[in-house]
Write a structure and sequence with these properties.
Shape: flat
Number of strands: 12
């Protein structure tokens, strides 16, 4: 079992350090493309290295002190059980991530393209901002947004990596919610969640953003649902990147996009130049073939007109003792030229 694991780790390592690295560094392939060729390679390496290490520790624990090769392993079931669990947990996480991604795509398909939200910093939040690859859906559900007049307005809440978004349904489509002229997009940086006193289904969302504080009161249908929302929001706030990091990442993304565009333009220009040169070569070859064809036609029509100087070896009556050596040299030179 250990030998099989060792060979498997070696195979995965070759895939990672030879093939994948070669595709990235030598062939300059895109990372997403290479990731599709070698899916889950890094997690697989981690899983099998951990299993191999656990098997080594199991064998080491059974080794007798007086003889390093005298060991008898009684149990490995616990090692294997901790491994079919780690894998199941990882699979469940990936399935959950995929399902949430699909849910977000379904919402985006119903979101009006022209709908947008005005943020506190005067920036505009649009549909394509929800579809950013840096934003993943953490939780989704119905929340009732309490207005200044005390009414509860139905909204669809999307808890993403760094923002909480409220949408409204209109004519079987979604638009960004509009309640009391408050932004329907709340940054998770410096977001505080508090229970509403004497209201087991309500919670306050207090945005202590640097552009200006804002408070929202939202309600759920049950106390358990309210507690679940508070837990999800707090977890998202704890894992949310800092505002400065987000701005730096946006700047890096824009810089990378511009660099990619410049690279694409240069590649296109090189391709046009190469195409022009290929056409010139093709034209020259066609002219050369035409000249050969005309020369062949002239040769076939008047063979007597070809001068004797083109003969590699003279007529038989002129052959002397030096002829074999001369003929060999001439034929070798002719073959090389051909």
């Amino acid at each position: 079992l250990m030998q099989t694991e060792l060979h498997h780790i070696q195979t995965l390592t070759v895939m990672s350090e030879v093939f994948r690295r070669g595709m990235l560094e030598e062939l300059q392939l895109d990372w997403d493309c290479v990731a599709r060729i070698f899916p889950c390679l890094d997690p697989l390496l981690l899983f099998h290295r951990n299993l191999f290490k656990a098997l080594q520790e199991c064998r080491q624990a059974a080794t007798q002190a007086e003889n390093s090769r005298n060991y008898l392993i009684h149990h490995i079931g616990n090692v294997l059980l901790q491994q079919i669990r780690d894998i199941i947990t990882a699979v469940d996480l990936m399935v959950g991530k995929y399902e949430r991604s699909q849910e977000l795509q379904e919402v985006l398909a119903r979101l009006e393209t022209k709908s947008f939200a005005k943020l506190k910093n005067d920036k505009v939040f649009r549909k394509q901002d929800l579809n950013s690859k840096h934003r993943a859906l953490q939780h989704k559900g119905l929340l009732y947004w309490k207005t200044a007049t005390g009414r509860l307005k139905d909204t669809l809440a999307l808890l993403l990596t760094d923002v909480l978004v409220f949408l409204q349904e209109k004519d079987q489509r979604f638009i960004f919610a509009s309640v009391d002229q408050k932004p329907p997009v709340i940054p998770l940086q410096k977001l505080i969640v508090r229970e509403v006193a004497n209201e087991e289904r309500g919670m306050f969302l207090i945005s202590a953003s640097s552009v200006g504080p804002e408070m929202y009161e939202v309600h759920t249908t049950t106390k358990e649902e309210r507690n679940a929302w508070m837990r999800h929001i707090r977890q998202a706030v704890e894992s949310c990147p800092e505002e400065e990091e987000e701005e730096e990442r946006s700047a890096e993304t824009e810089e990378a996009r511009q660099a990619a565009e410049m690279r694409a333009q240069k590649i296109s220009k090189f391709q046009e130049t190469l195409l022009g040169q290929d056409q010139q070569i093709c034209h020259s070859l066609e002219e050369k073939l035409q000249l050969y064809a005309e020369l062949t036609e002239l040769t076939l029509r008047a063979p007597e007109s070809v001068p004797h100087r083109h003969l590699l070896v003279g007529p038989a009556q002129y052959i002397d003792t030096e002829a074999p050596h001369q003929a060999s040299s001439l034929l070798t030179a002719a073959l090389r030229e051909g």
